[in-house]
Amino acid sequence: MRASSEGAAPVRAADGPSPELNEVIDRVGLVDHHAHSVVSGTVDRDAYAFMLDESDRPASARAAGLDTQVAFAVRRWCAPLLGLAPDASLDEFLRARLALSARDAVARFLPSARLDRLLVETGYRGDELMATPQLERLAETPVSTVARLETIAESVATEAPAARDFADAVRRSIEAALAAGAVGLKSIVAYRAGLDVDPRRPSDAEVERAAAAWLATLGPGSRPRLVDPVLLRFLLWAAVDTGRPLQVHTGFGDPDLHLRRSDPLLLTDFIRLAEGRGPILLLHTYPFHREAGYLAQMFEHVYVDVGLAVNYTGAQSPHVIAESLELAPFRRILFSSDAWGLPELHLIGSLLFRRGLSRVLGQWVVDGDWPLADAERVVRMIAAENARRVYGLSDEPDEGRGAVEPDRPAPDES
User: Fold this and answer.
1) This prediction's pTM
2) Residue 83 CB contacts under 8 Å (≥ 6 apart), including other chains
3) Domains along the sequence of the chain with CATH
4) Where are the beta strands (DSSP E) in 122-179?
5) What secondary structure does DSSP assign to 186-212, as a single string?
6) 221-259, pLDDT tens digit by residue?
């Protein structure tokens, strides 16, 4: 655990009914296996509200204001790190928060998340976000990267390759990203075509025809956006062929997707065909977290998290966490925040997760359903050990670095 550089009084997030388990949960370091970086500039009130709303419509964010679960959670847990009471008024909170630069906000909030490692997906609006080395320094935790498949393919397309060379160029770019240090790959096929795409590997001829049709639509200086189902399937299989972890966005997201087509059950045939080739990580999953738990129980290479929903359900997040623990084997559940843009989201992702886990598992312990030792073991699995194993990370657990402390825009295609 890291002591805040601002010297705020320690606040514990775990408040479940088992004091012994609370101590473990408050001290354990987390591996956030899917998040994004933070905006590099300052933000005003409207931008701040927009980045705390998952919709990509500014009008929706303005209509919601900051009367949402996620906004209430940010105020409650971040106010003490600004020298305010947890129940500070919205105006008090915003005055203090908006006075911070991006650099100061990261340094103020992110160390208190007590992360042992942060895995940052780099493919979305990266030119607006803080560079990884600076984020790592200010967050006081190692940062690894995850490469977005669609962004790789779109970058290749800007080089105007011949259609017959497109597939090999994409494969080389994927391998280059992994060689440069990316620990996994991510697909947003849910946004671009839905998870109900044909699960089969496309033939070379199919890929070449689809690439020719797509590349022919791109003019000089255009910004490619890959939506062709054949090429999206090609990317999935190119990732599977690497044997490296493949993250797939499922469930809740902005209006650029159709929620019914982001149900992870739609991936069942693809999961079957990819069995034995490498881990598939179903990101976020809410409101299909029970369906995702079923898939994790059925297939040894499937892993799940409920990251985004923990932030956005705020005070209700213990219920989501409890439901995510119903079917999925505990060795195949990971922690993530899916934070984007604001370091507050990385922080409350950690603190709400700790609090929810302490309430759910702690109740099972005091009810006599679980031994304390097993609850502690499961906490360590989900907090970090599972992610270290899946991604091949070398970090050792770290439970003794200091005082326990607090206490998106998530624009399209997070």
Assistant:
1) 0.91
2) 8, 96
3) 19-42+102-391 (3.20.20.140)
4) 143-148
5) EE-HHHHT-TTS--SPPPHHHHHHHHH
6) 788 999 999 999 999 999 999 999 999 999 998 888 999
